[in-house]
Amino acid sequence: MSEHSHPTPGLYVVILLALVVGTCLTWGIAFVDLGKWNPVVALTIAVIKAVLVVLFFMHVHYSSKLTKVTISAGVFWLMIMITMSLSDYLTRTFLPQ
Amino acid sequence: MQLNFPIFPEQASSMAGQVDALYLFLVLITTFFSLLIAILILYFAIKYRRTPGRQAEQIHGSTLLEIVWTVIPLGISMVIFVWGAVIYYHMERPPANPLEIYGVGKQWMWKFQHPGGQREINTLHVPTGRDVKVTLISQDVIHSFFVPAFRVKQDVLPNRYVFTWFKATQPGTYHLFCSQYCGTKHSGMVGQVVVMTPEDYASWLASGKAEGSLASLGEKAFQQYGCTTCHRPDSGARGPNLEGVYGRPIRLTDNRVVLADDNYIRESILEPNAKVVSGFQSIMPTFRGVVSEDEIIAITEYIKHLSPQQANPLNNRSTPTEIRDSEVPNIQQQNKQQNQQQPAQQTPQGKRPANPSGKKP
Amino acid sequence: MSTSQTTTTDHHPALAHQFDSMEQQQEASTFGMWVFLLTELMMFGGLFTAYLIYRLKYYPAFVAGSTSISVSWGFANTLVLIASSFTMAMTVWAAQNGKRKTQVWLLLATMVLGTAFLGVKAKEYYDKWDECHIPGHVIGKGFNAWGGCSATDKSLGNIAEEIRDPKAHGNPNVTEVSAEQTAKRTEIFFSFYFAMTGLHAFHMVIGLGLLAWLTLRARSGEFGPAYYTPIELGGLYWHFVDIVWIFLFPLLYLISRHQHGV
Amino acid sequence: MSTATAIVKPVMPERHFLNDNYGIRSWLLTKDHKRIAILYLFSITFFFLIGGVFASLIRLHLLTPNGELFEADTYNKLFTMHGVNMVFFFLIPSVPAVLGNFLVPIMVGTKDLAFPKINLLSWYLYMAGGTFSMAAMVSGGVDSGWTFYAPLSSGYLKTHVIMLAVGVIIAGFSSIFTGLNFIVTVHRMRAPGMTWGRLPLFVWSNYAASLIMILGTPVIAITLILLALERGFHIGIFDPKLGGDPVLFQHMFWFYSHPAVYIMILPGMGVISEIVPCFSRKRVFGYSFVAFSSVAIAVFGFVVWAHHMFVAGISVYSALVFSLLSYAVAIPSAVKVFNWTATMYKGSIEMSTPMLYAMAFIGLFTIGGLTGLFLAALGLDIHIHDTYFVIAHFHYVMVGGMVTAYLGGLHFWWPKITGRMYPEAPAKLAALITFIGFNLTFFPQFILGYMGMPRRYWAYPPEFQVLNVLSSAGASVLAVGFLLPLLYFAWSLKYGEVAGNNPWQATGLEWETSSPPPTHNFHEIPIVTKDPYAYGEDAEVTVVH
């Protein structure tokens, strides 16, 4: 990895600013009524922020394919857990309590 | 020790034959492949045993063979899947016009309530030739209602109704097991299912001491807890009118549509504010910790029997909230069909449970 | 075979015996960290799955519970954590470029920010304690959605009151009875709030321990362009914890905020 | 080739990992993967014996139908502790932590695992987890069943559920670290020339199992943590009384615990893939299919978990999906069985002890796997779910499959680990006894299960007694079969014939180094130029050292 290029402090500052803007945006939009899109927007911003952190702060943008595959596998497995669990809950009348 | 021990369970329900057929098919498959592999291994081990000078013939593999023994098992397993799924679907889809029995599991006993008001503990009497639907709930941990002779099993969950159904074919006495580990006396949570001919069953029903039908018990509870104060048919009522509501889609304040089934009624008693009917205020207090499971069952049964004076009101779709079929979530469709048969329900000897609507709430 | 045991002379002191070269060591260590973060992801993932299912099930209660926690503190904490991620990223950069003093200062800055985060978290927890919004019957004096089981100010933490607040222009059908029932169910929201933020805070504490250890090693000049793997691994861990929070913030603090105002 | 080995009488190497260092410290603080494997060997054997004692007591109790030997509570504790010990402290770590730990670095041609300290830590975690579970056992036992189903375990039992759960969680982290070490080692530490296509199948299968360890185990950890929180602080997660959902516990539990059975069986399959070619003197048939089927099992294994929940109240549609997907796991398993069988075709087969175990494995695993089809078939599973049929099925896979493979592997690599041969005659006898005892124990349980005998029953209807007596009788035979190896393995440490580097004339890097191997595995890091299992080409050449 040492031969690969590394991000510079300048880029780090840009990412930091992007993250701060993202956070403020999340906060601000939370008070605007978007109906059912509120959580979607909030999570989309969260995903973008997470991707920025992963790519640049965690250097994945500059890392080997193996690292990228590893991360994708993790996300994929998480999705398996969530979607397959929900496949049960969403297809029965929800547990009345 | 019984030395003439059986090695195959009795078949006492309409489902048993179907399940056994699949079982025997699978036994056949298993025997065939196990023997095939065993014979091949032993044959190779002997035929190609190491003798001085024997050289193995190097074979790297064969893609054709790999494909063959991928596709054949895949084909066989798809047959098994479809076969199993068909039986399962049949099991999960309750029959029209069943005899409805309620069962409550608790550490460590089974309680059953018949529509006529008869109660039993650890014993369940059912007639032959009639579809019996057992609606189950647990008072504490998870239990499982298991009658091997019928090939039915259903985990019994706390706080949620589940059901299983069967059609007994052979009179006799069969095991009832709890098959989900439920604590110290798990193996003591056993009982009997007594299957009788319809005539015997009728006389058993008649001989049983019932304090009145389940629905009439429910009516008593309904009045005792003051439900009638708000749930009235007149226009000024503070709660929705419950007449003919059972089995119908209901529109809620948040525009969702749910089905008024056993679970919905139960939830509305215990957590009234969770799904409030459109046009009503959520002012009903919770009855959690006040009513018992048995009473909820009785009240549910009572609500089922509450019908407006029209002939068959539950088939009448034009409810006050105007719900179209397409709005009802798919999963609920099948429940609905089954539930619409409800008003026709009668006990075998043709005696309707004490008519609660005689005293219109 | 390039390296074997005989050529020990050109070994970097930090090269472990099982590796052939510093490069292999660094690649293996980084990859190992990623694999570990995968398990962490699945661990938090289990919680997120459960959270999602209950959020669907008890949505009104989750809204009420979410509204009762302070969005300002959560917002501030998000910024603090993002800033700490930045200083951590800069630490790795400083190590790569052999800036020893900068490394130490940046590590200290990261730790200060991390501690600040935990401080805010502690303050939030204390508020919930004060309002008797701790789920269960063992810690505190039992859950009380009406709040104020020990506080003098009775208006504090009355979730039922908040649900009925005219400002809450959500469901016009809210009545005293239904508000009470919803308020009771917020207990399950708080179970998840404490489980998720608690597990996250636990990771922060471990992270701070790691950073302290790294600071000591950085001070002795152990890390430079040739060897900075531990700093990088610490950074990966710290950023992961940051990412978890990036999701926790909207999921816990911002459920249907628009109905209730700040 | 037999003449070549007969002439050169092998001698023990002067220095090897066992005599490089002495003293308790050199063991307890060792970072050598081989010594850690030995530590695991002893501790796992210990837990196997404890679990075995519980199993024997269960079978003894079930001789009579009315529950005459133990109280119901005691019986419930017995099967709980049997399950917990065997699943979490024997089956999951057995092949990976003992044989895998010893062999994976040697097989890929490196000096040690990537993270030796973490490897040692994982043994300590295992022991700490074991200590918690033993403490729970000693302080009164736990009667939750190894599945810990809520709300029974979270709200109703009076025993030390939390302590046991903590033990399982800690042991889980031990497993995570082992998996992590394997994955990194396989990716980053392979010797020059050791391409993915040349990796021994044992490494492939351990790699696949490691994937499950790192992706699945954290979920059981968080599940049990939530369970412990609910039990300790009465917060509502799973208990419906507190607003929770008990089915969610089952989803999360089986998300790990179903793939976990592949953690158990995959490394066992790897052992068989080594033994069969060696004693058939043949390349493994369809190398890449066997290798990829391991990975396929690991991946598909994650999407089938709810087939444990067909009667638990999940939705009809989800049950259909999970049933369909369950058959996806059956295919790669079948592919493996066919490939092993084909490997024997036209071989030069020597029926030594490891081969006997391997053949037993193939047969028993076939039965175990095929009876899994019964349980994945929805309509049929309704009847046999939670009966002795399930018990028989998973013991066929776990004992008939996994334990058999473990014993086979132990015999196969015993000369490599200790430098000495085990005695062949008693070993063959033990293999035979195990096979007979095993079938006698568990075959009747299939019939019992279809008859409807539910599992975890302290007392049962009298018509089930004959089959239960048969099963118990088989268990006593099986116990003899399991105890015999203990004796002759111990005996062989002193009196066994010196094995030499490659007593089986097998291929693979582990056979190119001395037996026992030196501390750093190889005197010189090997360069791999051949395909794996290159039997019949120049296998003999490698023997001469």
Description:
The complex is a heterotetramer of chains A (97), B (361), C (262) and D (545). The mean pLDDT of chain A is 87. Chain A has three helices and no strands. Chain A has two domains: 1-63; 64-97. The N and C termini of chain A lie far apart (54 Å). Chain A has helices at residues 9-29, 37-57, 65-89. Chain A is 69% helix and 0% strand. The longest helix of chain B has 32 residues, at 16-47. Chain B has a five-stranded mixed beta sheet with strand order 3-2-1-5-8, with helices on one face. Chain B starts with 15 loop residues before the first helix and ends in a 21-residue tail after the last helix. The radius of gyration of chain B is 27 Å and the shape is elongated. Chain B is an alpha+beta fold and 361 residues long. The longest helix of chain C is centred in the C-terminal third of the chain and has 44 residues, at 176-219. Chain C is elongated, with a radius of gyration of 23 Å. Chain D is mostly helical and 545 residues long. Chain D is built from 18 helices and no strands. Chain D is globular. Mean pLDDT of chain D is 93; it is low at 1-6 and 539-545. At the B-D interface, helix 1, helix 2, strand 7 and strand 9 of B face helix 4, helix 7, helix 10, helix 11 and helix 12 of D.
CATH second-level architecture of chain C: Up-down Bundle
**Which word captures the global form of chain C?**
elongated
**CATH homologous superfamily identity of chain C:** Cytochrome c oxidase, subunit III, four-helix bundle
Category from helices, strands and their pairing of chain D? mainly alpha
The number of distinct structural domains of chain D comes to: 1
Radius of gyration based on Cα positions of chain D: 23 Å
| N/C terminus separation of chain D | 14 Å
Largest sheet of chain D: none
Q: Rough shape of chain D?
A: globular
In angstroms, what separates the terminal alpha carbons of chain C?
Answer: 66 Å
Instruction: Give the mean pLDDT of chain C.
Output: 86
Helix content of chain C: 55-70%
Query: What fold name stands as the CATH topology of chain C?
Result: Four Helix Bundle (Hemerythrin (Met), subunit A)
Describe the structure in brief:
The complex is a heterotetramer of chains A (97), B (361), C (262) and D (545). With 262 residues, chain C is an all-alpha fold.
